[in-house]
């Protein structure tokens, strides 16, 4: 099995972080003997998203707040939710298995699998477990907001992965009261139907929703569907004690069309990979159940305690190779956070102590033949194996107000990772069981230069354990001939080390005459990076994961939301997001200073929008991504792309109903949305890419009662 090695990059060039113009206002004094008439003051409560943005300013690093209450276009999946966000790459392979990467996290992963490199939560409760992040519960229409803390900035949430933390916040009866109906439809059989109802009854609020989706897909053999329901109930037991219960259930199923070559994408991107067609590759997920509770106790005016517990059962039935693999996953995850405001060295200070535990109750696999092979009929039992893990993080941090402008954050996390991996049938003595300790210190600052401009920075360490399943699925230790239908299958796991990274981040954010802006630069030295490579394609798919030699991740993340013109006839605005990514080896014996494949170096999204006071709006948007390598040898690239889209809609006064129509990829550009890396393709055009959607027209309507 190939071993992935790595290189040194020249240091990041100094970044001319944006200087912001401060606007001052002058007031005219009224004559002393004249009565003073005060202007009427309109008091409005800060929105949920505004409160989240205010909280973000206390974080000594970069983040995003995505307000889905303002969504007015297609929300088919995670790629739509995370669009137009600096520092985030989210590309769909045509189904819900979106490939999401922040600062090169999960660059090794193909789409449609459990994601790596980002700690994902639902309402503050861990969704990411020892085996990664499943995606079927991330229904966009159930959400009111998404908070993203990029890089090591998810520290206080116990999120220590290279890419940071994403928290998906559900709707509740307090922000979504009444009945809401939504319907979306469009090209290639896409339909989504949703019903939601919420309300408040005294100290209790509640929200329930049902959503179902179906699509034929852009490629041949890419159809799928999903359906599910969610509910949450909150109870303000007394002024100091609040609790909320969460329930989500969802089933998904989609065909897997497979990856294509660059030439195929250029000429016939709607084709399926012939090997996937031959085996009828598909991924049924028969039903994921999520039950959780978050309880908050306000101990006194200065301290609080928050505890969360979640049970998550998510079986899978993988039919994407010659083998059927039936997985039975069950997680029990917990969080506990204590927060206290107090004086330290005579200054205002806040100390937080937190514990985050994710534990596999079950992570077991039964494997059988899908087709007759070597004289054995379809359905023959080939293996049973298990890959259990537990990840625990205890973190302590302090935020100290040095003065009115400068705040300093210090922190330390202790991480314990446990793994227990073995083939249980045919029984073997080669069991991998162990426990590792690691640590992650953090030092950061925020400096409020003016009321409109804030500078921030941090030096942090991140720790990411390998998924236990990758230690057996990518093993190069096989059953020898003579072991019946198990011959040639992995018999024993291989150990993998924790991935660690030391990251320096500097940036600024604020508001100016140009609009709301942010600019961040980061430089990370990564050790034992977990990288995967496709060793054998479908139908006998084999993807191996290894620890790489040292790598560097560095980049620039920039965002700007501007009002270009505003008057009585409306508002013209422009939002832009640009991400520069340079991920490469450091002095690798085989690959030198090669770039890591799988993500573009330059990625830009922008939208120009006009809003009329009467409720009409129209927008023109664009996306550009530079070419990207498809193998670690950097011998072949996927094409760059530039696509355009447009959207028009109407928001009825009072918000009672909304309708919109949009066209995506107007020019029907053929391009690669995602890449699953190979080792060394020697300049050959190998099937490594999934095509992005072609031209499509979609429309939707929403009613609120």
TrEMBL record:
Where, per UniProt, does this protein localize? Cell outer membrane
Q: How does it sit in the membrane?
A: Multi-pass membrane protein
Q: Where is the TonB-dependent receptor-like beta-barrel domain?
A: 230-665
Recorded hits in SUPFAM superfamilies, A to Z, give: Porins
Q: Keywords of this protein's UniProt record, alphabetized?
A: Cell outer membrane, Membrane, Receptor, Signal, TonB box, Transmembrane, Transmembrane beta strand, Transport
Member of which family?
Belongs to the TonB-dependent receptor family. Hemoglobin/haptoglobin binding protein subfamily.
What is the official name of this protein in its record? TonB-dependent receptor
The taxonomy runs: Bacteria, Pseudomonadati, Pseudomonadota, Gammaproteobacteria, Lysobacterales
């Amino acid at each position: 099995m190939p071993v992935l090695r790595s290189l040194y990059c020249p240091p990041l060039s100094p970044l001319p972080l944006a200087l912001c113009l401060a606007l001052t206002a002058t007031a005219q004094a009224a004559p002393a003997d004249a009565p003073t008439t005060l202007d009427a003051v309109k008091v409005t409560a800060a929105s949920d998203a505004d409160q989240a943005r205010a909280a973000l300013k206390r974080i000594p690093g970069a983040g995003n707040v995505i307000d889905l209450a303002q969504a007015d276009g297609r929300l088919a999946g995670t790629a739509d939710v995370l669009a137009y966000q600096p520092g985030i790459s989210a590309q769909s392979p045509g189904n819900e298995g979106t490939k999401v990467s922040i600062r090169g996290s999960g660059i090794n992963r193909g789409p449609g699998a459990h994601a790596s490199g980002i700690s994902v939560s639902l309402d503050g409760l861990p969704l990411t477990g020892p085996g990664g992040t499943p995606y079927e519960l991330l229904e966009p229409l159930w959400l009111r907001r998404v908070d993203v803390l990029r890089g090591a900035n998810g520290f206080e949430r116990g999120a220590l992965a290279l890419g940071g933390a994403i928290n998906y916040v559900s709707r509740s009866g307090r922000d979504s009261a009444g009945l809401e109906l939504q319907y979306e439809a469009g090209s290639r059989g896409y339909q989504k139907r949703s019903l939601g109802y919420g309300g408040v009854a005294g100290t209790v609020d509640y929200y329930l929703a049902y959503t179902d989706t179906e699509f034929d897909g852009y490629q041949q053999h890419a159809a799928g569907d999903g359906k599910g329901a969610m509910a949450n109930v909150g109870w303000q037991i007394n002024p100091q004690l609040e609790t909320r219960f969460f329930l989500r259930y969802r089933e998904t199923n989609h065909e897997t069309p497979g990856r294509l070559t660059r030439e195929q994408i250029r000429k016939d991107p709607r084709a399926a990979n012939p090997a996937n067609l031959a085996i009828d590759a598909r991924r049924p997920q028969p039903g994921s159940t999520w039950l959780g509770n978050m309880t908050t106790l306000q101990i006194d005016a200065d301290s609080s305690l928050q505890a969360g517990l979640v049970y998550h059962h998510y079986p899978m039935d993988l039919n994407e190779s010659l083998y059927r693999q039936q997985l039975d996953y069950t997680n029990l995850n917990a969080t506990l956070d204590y927060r206290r405001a107090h004086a330290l060295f005579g200054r205002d200070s806040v100390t937080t102590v937190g514990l985050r535990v994710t534990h596999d109750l079950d992570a077991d696999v039964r494997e059988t033949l899908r087709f007759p092979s070597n004289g054995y009929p379809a359905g023959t039992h080939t293996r049973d194996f298990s890959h259990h893990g537990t990840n625990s993080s205890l973190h302590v941090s302090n935020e100290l107000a040095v003065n009115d402008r400068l705040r300093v954050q210090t922190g330390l996390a202790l991480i314990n990772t446990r793994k227990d991996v073995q083939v249980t049938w045919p029984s073997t003595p080669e069991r991998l069981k162990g426990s590792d300790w690691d640590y992650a210190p953090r030092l950061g600052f925020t400096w409020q230069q003016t009321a409109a401009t804030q500078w921030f920075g941090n030096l942090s360490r991140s720790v990411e354990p390998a998924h236990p399943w990758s230690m057996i699925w990518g093993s190069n230790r096989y059953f020898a001939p003579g072991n019946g239908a198990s011959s040639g299958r992995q018999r024993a796991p291989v150990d993998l080390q924790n991935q660690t990274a030391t990251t320096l981040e500097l940036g600024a954010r604020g508001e100016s005459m140009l609009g709301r802006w942010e600019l961040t630069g980061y430089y990370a030295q990564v050790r034992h990076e977990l990288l995967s490579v496709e060793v054998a394609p479908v139908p006998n798919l084999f993807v191996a994961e290894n620890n790489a030699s040292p790598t560097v991740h560095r980049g620039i993340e920039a965002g700007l939301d501007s009002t270009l013109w505003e008057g009585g006839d409306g508002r013209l605005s422009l939002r832009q997001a640009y991400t520069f990514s340079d991920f490469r080896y450091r002095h690798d014996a085989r690959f030198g200073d090669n770039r890591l494949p799988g993500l573009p170096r330059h990625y830009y999204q922008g939208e120009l929008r006009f809003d009329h006071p009467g409720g009409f709006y129209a927008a023109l948007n664009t996306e550009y991504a530079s070419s990207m390598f498809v193998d670690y040898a950097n011998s072949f690239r996927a094409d760059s792309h530039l696509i355009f889209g447009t959207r028009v809609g109407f928001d009825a006064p009072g918000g009672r109903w909304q309708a919109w129509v949009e066209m995506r990829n107007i020019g029907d550009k053929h391009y690669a949305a995602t890449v699953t890396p190979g080792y060394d393709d020697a300049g050959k055009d190998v099937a490594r890419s999934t095509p992005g959607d072609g031209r499509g027209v979609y429309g939707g309507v929403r009613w609120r009662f």
